[in-house]
Amino acid sequence: MKTTSSALAWALLLAAAGSGAPARAADAVAPQITLDAPRNGGAYLAPQLAGGLAQGHARDNAGGSGLATVTLLLWRQAGSATRYYDGRGFNLPGGRYLAATLSGSGELKAWSFRLPTIAQGLVPGVYHLRALARDRAGNNGFLPLVTFTIRGTSSSGDVTPPQLSIDTPQNGGVYSASQTHFGALGSAHDNAGGGGIASIRIIAYRYADAQGPAGYFNGQSFSSPTPFENPALVPPTTSNQLTQWLFDRPSVFTPGRILLTTVARDRAGNRSQTSITFTRR
Fold first, then answer.
1. What total of structural domains would you count in the chain?
2. Which of 74, 138, 70 is nearest to 104 (CA)?
3. Which helix (H) or strand (E) holds 256?
4. What is the mean pLDDT of residues 228-239?
5. Last residue of a domain, one of 95, 119, 152
6. What backbone phi and psi angles, to 5 degrees, belong to 55?
7. Are the C-beta atoms of 108 and 133 separated by less than 8 Å?
8. Do 186 and 99 lie in a common domain?
9. What range does the domain containing 48 cover?
10. Beta strands in 116-255 (DSSP E)
């Protein structure tokens, strides 16, 4: 009985000592976050951004805990005062991060954040934006400070972004790798009275799998760590003329799971984008 009591006492002592040992974090790598729009250093008329979207991508590290949230902090310099956006207007003297919307699956996700309208205070001035990506382990990745300028609230020019669609591949589609000819195609058109479509560009991201690491397509291979815009074939257009675009690069459509983002710009510099995910196997 004495021996049993001693053994139990030692077991309790060891358990108590062990409970004070720090837990080893399984994921200590911060996620990465990038911004597609608005561009850092950009100057805009208010209708070009008002009520539109700040957009970008974020991803956690391979084997990490997974991306949990993307939040943004937006503020405006008004003379010597700084006012922060609270989702309804620039009403706060101190900053508060607001949630962005996440879409997509896998380690890379697209994020978007609805910018204020003119009525909510998007008036001429200098604006600053920070974005934070957090994974499920609590690691934070920060976007470098972005600064842009609103020059005015009205214009007689074109401030409407073009319309854009991806017709094939289909979002969520699964396709055979034995197909000898495989490309992406869709349509785009500018608004009535606009200057027409200026360019269509493709950002392709391949998720990591047993056949290779993750990366963005840089024109030759999926080896770029940052987004890379590849030109699609598109005939010149004017005004709201509908046009078809084609992206036919066999090295993009190798087996694997691909996030395909299409970016359209009109001749006034207005921009729109759309994304799909598909698989070849």
1. 2
2. 70
3. strand 256-266
4. 83
5. 152
6. -140, 155
7. no
8. no
9. 32-152
10. 125-135, 140-142, 146-152, 163-168, 174-175, 184-189, 197-206, 215-217, 222-224, 230-231, 243-247
Q: How does pLDDT run across 190-228, given as a tens digit for each residue?
A: 888 777 888 899 999 999 988 888 999 988 889 888 888
Q: What's the Rg (C-alpha) of the chain?
A: 24
| Token duo for residue 15 | 């358990």
Predicted local distance difference test score (pLDDT) of residue 34: 95
Q: Which residue has the tokens 């991806």?
A: 166
Residue 245, token pair as written in the block:
């675009």
| pLDDT class of 13 with cuts at 50, 70, 90 | very low
- Residue 157 within any structural domain of the chain: no
Instruction: Report residue 132 as tokens.
Output: 């934070």
Measure the CA–CA gap between 123 and 242, rounded to whole angstroms.
33
3-state secondary structure (DSSP) of residue 89: coil
The count of other CB atoms within 10 Å of the CB of residue 28 is 12
